[in-house]
Amino acid sequence: MSSRTRLSFDVKLNKLGETINIQISDPSGLQADNLALATWGSSEVLANVLHRLPVDFSNTGVLQHVLGVLELGAGTGLVGLSAACIWRTNATLTDLPPLLPAIDANIALNKDLLSRHDALATLGMLDWSQPECIESGSSSGTVLKEGGHGDSIMNVKRMRARVIVAADTVYSEEHPELLVNAVKARLDSKPEARLIMCYPLRIGYLDHIRDLWERLEDAGLVCIQEGREEIDDSWDEDTPYEWCVWRWQAVGERPQSGT
Ligand SMILES: C[S@@+](CC[C@H](N)C(=O)[O-])C[C@H]1O[C@@H](n2cnc3c(N)ncnc32)[C@H](O)[C@@H]1O
Asked: Cβ(110)–Cβ(22) under 8 Å?
């Protein structure tokens, strides 16, 4: 079995070396974007970096109308599920319609794990070309309805998020502009808000990544932390992965140089 279709992932929970095991439903029958639905290396790298990143979820939640975590282009949802457990918060996992049944199945598969970590995962359809609206799906078998009631029901339609995560979402020339528009529409305006991304440094994608960085800086974001990781041998590839953390620039702050 290739690593991309692996059905469970151990993810670092904290600096003590504890891990959580995220279950992924068998995606072999599903296709999206002409690719077999899979978990990509960026997701495993980013999921394992999250526990090292300081985040502040104060004043987030249903009553504050601010999501904890929003995942863009979630795929199988490994990063969003990990983020919810590691940071003990709510995460909304979004993607295009063909991907939603698999994400929903993965939320359901990890329901007990989520609950043990005081975490909540919900499903949404968010197309980066129309980021103003998240169409609610179901989560853990619960139908999400605007104005509905229940523990796991959130009206996420127009909420911004304290943290946006996105793994392996920059692989065509349209993606930088679309993603930056989605971030502008969805990232909380507070100084504590963070955009956290990870992507493979494949030669063919470097121009898109440079374009992404320029557009993020033009949008008023500044990169405050970045790193590179190698993925383990089981992935059978030697591409390095880069992750980066962004926040809104403070007034009068000059952007740092990019990649
Ligand atoms: C290479 S996959 C990465 C999936 C997952 N983040 C991972 O790393 O395993 C890219 C994801 O972005 C999603 N995507 C592509 N274009 C999109 C768009 N316009 N709006 C929302 N999602 C999009 C795809 O459906 C796919 O799930």
From this structure: yes
Listed as ranges, residues in the chain with pLDDT below 70 are 1-3, 27-36, 137-155, 254-259
| CB-ligand 1 contact for 165 (6 Å cutoff) | no
Nearest protein CA to atom 11 of ligand 1, as residue? 73
If you measure from the C-alpha of residue 37 to the centroid of ligand 1, how many angstroms do you get, rounded to a whole number?
10
Distance 16 CA to ligand 1 centre (A): 32
Instruction: Give pLDDT, residue 62.
Output: 78
Q: How far is the CA of 73 from the centre of ligand 1 (A)?
A: 3
Going from the N-terminus, what domains does the chain have, and what CATH number goes with each? 39-248 (3.40.50.150)
Spatial distance between the Cα atoms of 259 and 256, rounded to a whole number of angstroms: 10
Residue 161's CB is within 10 A of a number of other CB atoms, namely: 25
pLDDT of residue 33: 55
pLDDT of 136 reads 76
